[in-house]
Amino acid sequence: MLENVPPASSSRWRLSPGTVVDQFEVVAPLGRGGMGEVYAARDRQLGRNVALKLLPTPTDDPVATRRALDEARTTARFSHPNIVTIFAVGAYEDHAYLALELLTGETLRDRLKRGPMPTSELVGVMAAVAGALEDAHERGVQHRDLKPSNVFLAEDGRPRVLDFGVAGFGDPVANEATDGVSLVPKQKRTAAGTPAYMAPEQWRGERLTPAVDVWALGMVLFELVAGIRANAGRTRDQLRVWACADAPIEGPRAAEHRPPSALDRLIVDCLARRPEARPSSAQVHRRLRALVAEWSAAASDQPPFLGLMPFTEGDAGRFYGRQAEVAGFVDRLLATSTLAILGASGAGKTSFVQAGVIPRLRAEGPLVVVGLRPGRDPMATLSLQLFAAAAPSNPAAPTLSLSESSTPGVVSEGVVPSDDGLVQALQRTPGLLRARLSALVPPGGRALLFVDQLEEVVTLTPSSRDQAAFLDAISLVADRAPPGVLTVITLREEFLSRVAAIPRHRPPFDHITVLRNPTSAELRQVLTEPARQAGYAYDDPEIVDSMIQQVQGARTALPLLQFAASKLWEARDEARRLLLRERYEAMGGVSGALAQHADGVMESLNGPQASTARALWLRLVTPERTRRTVGRRALLDGLGPAAPAVLDRFIEARLIVARRPDDGTDEELELVHESLILDWTRLSGWITQSLEELIIVGELERAADGWERRDRRDSELWTGDALRDAERALERLGSQQVAGRIRDFVTASRHRVSRLVWRQWILVISAFVVVTSAAIAFARGQLAAEAQRAQAEAQRAQAQLEAAHSAYL
Fold first, then answer.
1. Is residue 629 within 8 Å of 378, Cβ to Cβ?
2. What integer is the mean pLDDT of 85-98?
3. What is the mean pLDDT of the chain?
4. What's the pTM value of the predicted model, to 2 decimals?
5. CA geometry: angle at 269 spanning 264 and 272, to 5°?
6. Are 333 and 339 within 8 A, CB to CB?
7. Backbone angles phi, psi at 776, to 5 degrees
């Protein structure tokens, strides 16, 4: 909810459930306050939940209506992560309305009712608020009613400032923001805002500037630190006198007779009586960020830049540069239910979904995420995640794929418990996936199937039958999505024709988003905002321009920038809280940072180790220049006793990541990012040199897997030209370059050919013997026949002779 005010009886609300306001259908009242009534509503065009806020400004006052809608539209253009998003503005009957993102959580006021907040927590929240104020002030918009009930602590971890631009709608004071026009009839003019948080100039009816928001922020900070308002216990008139007094305001801990802390000094500065004496919102933001960084550094050594690691849902607060794109994507996804993300390797597709889309969907309502990468056995991986999602131990809204491993989004290729039989069931009936996902939809929420790096179906899955079954299953979901089920797929653009070659596999790609390269402004956010959050800056601002220029238009711009910034962070000047140009130049800029790091690790190896390393790297890539996930035993098989130490060296350098599957099986390893394949010249050269061998080894690996699965049947072995090509490739690579199961497959194929040749010789010899025996028998038969004929002739001659002799006698 946006406001946790208990709804009154329905008769007191202007809108009843079922009322349609333009494209929004009212579901239920949520709360009301001085700035209007809030309802839960459903966007009937895009299928998303929204908060519908009906403003108190009547539309029969043309000036008031124009100003209300104009300022709301100004606020709607904000894309700051800590300002509540406005989807639409309009008018209904006699009131203007706003359609905002519907959030779950509580207001800062409600949080305070549960007890005091830890200092580190409250400073983090208020740093986010100050950032929102800074962004609004830069756009010429003031809040003018900042207070704890207008700060919302959303469950996605991002505080939001509510009613931005709305509080000014009722401001009766002629000032620059309203072009001297009063927004209410003169006879009703009173001081605008919430009295306990109003600045002296608001009480006096003076010209309002952004300093009024800084005063209110100081008042909220005072209350959070002290547990009580600075002006508590006063009537309205007494509040006016207190605010307009001349005496300076003491810090919240002054009564404790302790030296003022940096936070105390900031509060006192914000509560300066004269507006010009207060710091700007940008200065307040910077000082609060410095405090956040100081306390965060004491509590955690987590760096602000992730290097080549993908962002997870837990990194949403550090994910910059894609906010507008994420919002547009979620709108399309809610309207279509299935949306594929195409992009080049290194475009940040996984991070876009995990740190951008999923948190945004969670803000829409309860969400169950079933996420996976297909890997070598996609059906088993999918089945494991479905089984885990349905388990009683996971009753809420789990994100099943986004583990805290070094490769978020990658789930283990484990085996579903045998009594479930889901793997076989899905292979026989791919449509079963629709029913399973439908059963996972939580009440009032959604289930998301997130298939990351779908190209693995064609690059890693050896069985064409398994490929087809998996694609059939997700295609059926995309073609007829059950209510509440969403599907997001990421795919490298060059694999689209291969994955969707069969007509029945095209539904997941009916709706496509191409992840574009970030703009210069977005890349600047990527570099500057995490550093600012940590309380750091660049000693030379031109470093940022140089870094952006080096990667502008590059497919791997985001990971390269993240990696270069992470190396700058490692060499930061902690005393001055600066990222240094000299370090940037020493590492060769953005383009040289990754190659320099990887080459440095390689150069630390001796000759035999370097040869082992080359073999190890080539086992982690495919001929299509994508990453391959390999178990530790398979990766090290045949590489010699030095291989484990070499592998650990690359893991320590964060070039290869290791992950232990949930089922406790063999550790899985892969390259930390595909930008290594594209941007590290040494590895790219190795791949080019060994491309033919990699292709043959890939085919051998798939054949060997099929042979193993089918109980090593002779019919699965190779013969003829295929075997000869394989033997030549293994000879060129060297025996240590291939896994044992491949060598076993080739050896078995050789033995089979030998057996076949020997059988052929036996058959030839046997045939010769048979033919020879038949010839001899035939010859003997002929001789016997001749002898018989001769004997018969002799007998006839003898008979004739005897007859003649008898006649003569």
1. no
2. 84
3. 79
4. 0.56
5. 130
6. yes
7. -65, -45
pLDDT at 763 over 80: no
Q: What is the dihedral of CA 517, 521, 525, 528, to 10 degrees?
A: 120
Residue ranges with strand state E in 138-237: 151-154, 159-161
Token pair 């009916």 is found at: 510
Query: Residue 551 and residue 579: Cα distance in Å, rounded?
Result: 19
Which of 705, 668, 672 shows the shortest CA–CA distance to 413? 668
Q: Kind and range of the H or E element at 362?
A: helix 358-364
Enter the tokens of residue 696: 């043959």
What Rg, from alpha-carbon coordinates, does the chain have? Answer: 38
Backbone angles phi, psi at 36, to 5 degrees: 125, -175
Predicted confidence band at 643 (pLDDT cuts at 50, 70, 90)? Answer: confident
Cβ partners under 8 Å of residue 278, min gap 6: 211, 214, 215, 218, 269, 270, 271, 272
Q: Which residues, in sequence order, are CB contacts of 291 under 8 Å at separation 6+?
A: 123, 127, 262, 263, 266, 535
Q: Which of 55, 12, 9, 57 is nearest to 36 (CA)?
A: 55
> Quick one: which of 123, 106, 107, 167 has its CA closest to 142?
167
Give dist(CA 471, CA 455) in Å, integer.
Answer: 11
Report whether 534 contacts 305 (CB < 8 A).
no
Lowest-pLDDT range, 68-77, 569-578, 598-607?
Answer: 68-77
pLDDT reading at 403 higher than 50: no
pLDDT at 251 over 50: yes
Question: What DSSP state is assigned to residue 176?
Answer: G
3-state SS of 157-168?
CCEEECCCCCHH
- Which residues are CB-neighbours of 163 under 8 A, at least 6 positions away? 35, 143, 145, 150
**Spatial distance between the Cα atoms of 165 and 158, rounded to a whole number of angstroms:** 20
CA dist 30 and 2 (Å) reads 8
Q: Which residues, including other chains, have CB under 8 Å from residue 323's CB and lie 6 or more apart?
A: 79, 80, 81, 356
Greatest mean pLDDT range, 82-86, 481-485, 765-769: 481-485
**pLDDT, tens digit (0-9, with 9 covering 90-100), for 336-377:** 999 999 987 778 899 999 988 998 888 777 889 999 999 888
Query: Could you tell me the sign of the dihedral formed by the alpha carbons of 537, 538, 542, 545, in that order?
Result: negative
262 token code pair: 């940096």
Strand blocks (E) in 647-775: 656-659, 668-671
Give the 3-state secondary structure of residue 338: strand
**Is residue 180 classed as helix, strand or coil in its secondary structure?**
coil
Q: In this structure, how many other beta carbons lie within 10 angstroms of the beta carbon of residue 334?
A: 19
Judged by DSSP in three states, 114 sits in coil
pLDDT band with cut points at 50, 70 and 90 for residue 86: confident
**φ/ψ (deg, to 5) at 44:** -75, -15
Task: Using DSSP, state whether 142 is helix, strand or coil.
Answer: coil
Residues in the chain: 809
Amino acid at 786: E
Q: Helix, strand, coil % (nearest 5) of the chain?
A: 55, 15, 35
**Residues 144, 194: Cα–Cα separation, whole Å:** 9
Q: How far is CA 688 from CA 122, 650, 682, 685, in A?
A: 54, 22, 10, 5
Reading phi first (left if > 0) and then psi (alpha if -120 to 50, else beta), residue 95 is in beta
Q: Which residues contact 169 (CB under 8 A, 6 or more apart)?
A: 35, 55, 57, 64, 67, 68, 71, 183
Query: Are the C-beta atoms of residues 87 and 43 closer than 8 Å to each other?
Result: yes
Does the annotation count 145 as an active-site position? Answer: yes
Instruction: State the catalytic residue, choosing from 43, 135, 145, 679.
Output: 145
Give all strands (DSSP E) within 219-361, no chain letters. 338-343
- Write the burial class of residue 792 (CB in 10 Å: 0-12 exposed, 13-18 middle, 19+ buried): exposed
**Alpha-carbon gap, residue 292 to 159, rounded angstroms:** 15
